Amino acid sequence: SRYGPKMPLAVDCTAELIRCKVLDSSGRLKSHELILSYGLALVRFVNLITERKQKMVSIPLRQLAREVDIPIWVVDLRHELTHGKLPRLALCRKGCDVVLDWLRKTYWSRQLGNNLCEESEDEEEEQEGMEANAELDSDAWE
Q: What sign does the dihedral 78-34-103-15 (CA atoms) show?
């Protein structure tokens, strides 16, 4: 609140994404409303985070995202939300989780003195084990 209208982008994006998750867990919104809510938060995240790297000459969004380690499929999801058919709610939820994890690793861990990075290593080992199991399940990516 001390920043007023100059809230750091990562804080603003995190707040919007968490707001989506809270609304989702409340059960008060319909699927379509949740897709729109998640969609707006995801579009704003990609646009705001990559905008800082944009130069006078237009650089493709995929290249900018690659430079800051945002998964390309999140950029593709943003493209669909902006220009195409609205995706399934499950994909929006997954996008939100991936982006929140990116924000945690890229922004929040530095703000909290890297305490989250130490915890993150244990989580990453656990996640790698889960991903290995998920590869065996042909429906995991769907």
A: positive
Q: Which of 37, 50, 26 is nearest to 102 (CA)?
A: 50
The CA distance from 122 to 5, in Å, is: 37
- Sign of the Cα torsion 95, 96, 100, 101 reads negative
CB 61 within 8 A of CB 74: no
Q: What is this structure's pTM?
A: 0.73
DSSP 3-state of 9 = helix
Cα 104 to Cα 23: distance, rounded to the nearest angstrom: 20
pLDDT digit of tens for each residue in the chain (142 aa)?
Answer: 566 677 888 899 999 999 999 999 999 999 999 999 999 999 999 999 888 777 767 888 889 898 889 999 999 999 999 999 999 999 999 999 999 999 999 888 877 775 544 554 445 444 444 333 333 333 333 3
Domain residue spans of the chain: 9-111
Three-class secondary structure of residue 56 per DSSP: coil
